[in-house]
Design brief:
This is (apollo) hypothetical protein. InterPro entries: BRAP. It comes from Parnassius apollo. Keywords: Cytoplasm, Golgi apparatus, Membrane, Signal-anchor, Transmembrane, Transmembrane helix. By secondary structure, the chain is α+β, with helices and mostly antiparallel strands. The chain has two domains: 107 residues, no CATH class; 200 residues, Jelly Rolls (Sandwich). The strands form two sheets. The protein has a nine-stranded mixed beta sheet with strand order 1-2-11-8-13-6-5-3-4. It is elongated and about 125 Å long. The two termini are 71 Å apart. The mean pLDDT is 78.
Length: 334
Amino acid sequence: MNERESITAYAHSIKKLKKECSDKGLSEDEFRKLYFESLNTIEEGDNKLSNISRSFVTKRKFLLILLLILTIYSIKYICCNVLCNLQELIYPGLRLIRQISIPFISLFPALTELYQEPCLIQNPFYTIIDMDCWPCSTVTNVHQIYDPQPLHQQHAAPFIYETDQEQVDTKKLRNLYFRNKELFDKESSKIVMNNKFHLAPSNVFQNQQDIEDRNLYVWKINNLNLARILRQLIPRAKVVPKFGQSTERFIIIDSSHSDFNIPDTECNFAFLLVLSGTRTVTLYPAEECKHQCKSIEVDLKESYLLWYNWWYWRPVVQQSNGNSTFVAHVGSYC
């Protein structure tokens, strides 16, 4: 209906209403007075609604501006709190995900083949802002314990203990590799030598003399099937809980007797298990905690395990004057 039709319909309605009022005995002057009073009432109602609407819009704009100002002034505080609380939930969340996923991975080990990390590059400049360093600030030495229990404490101090681990030298590793050569070559085909070169496991284990020829080998294993095979020689340590251990493991073979850094692990609760040989390990505080925490040293004998929290400590194996080849296993859990 257009404007002309609306006006025509309105005029027709007024005429009809006027006729009904006349039939009821209402004079023309009374009808006109009643008509204008009704128009005034409608106009006053419209003005009142308009005022209420304008007042509501004004208040809403004021509240939005006030909220924006408060957000701008408190954004730093909010971000700091969110990041702090989020960091506390990262590892419990990862632990829960692992507990849920382990039954599926146990039934379908091939699922671990879907996890690949060729494009992951560690950021050497990554630091945590305002990191709480009190857990390492009070640590002055590494204690030895005699009754190890699985740990999930975020701020526990590093410690060592003697395990029931049998000696695993390069000959045993070599035999394990050749018994499962096809699987090792498929799933873990690269060994880092001297932090410079990548070699195939067959090139490393082909000659026993080459392994002991003053080199450092770091063999990363990140597959469930290989982890199960490795368990034949290296059972799960008592300090490691049944659920939560990372699939990622490192086998370190050092015949160079030089110092080297222990690789960074996937989870923060990490351990270094000596399979053969003896070395001194220095735990340096993380970059964020150097101003509060001190370096500590510990002598690791064969079959001893060093437990530490990767958030606060960076272990470095010191050089040695001995002739024995150092073999170690590095793992972690969340």
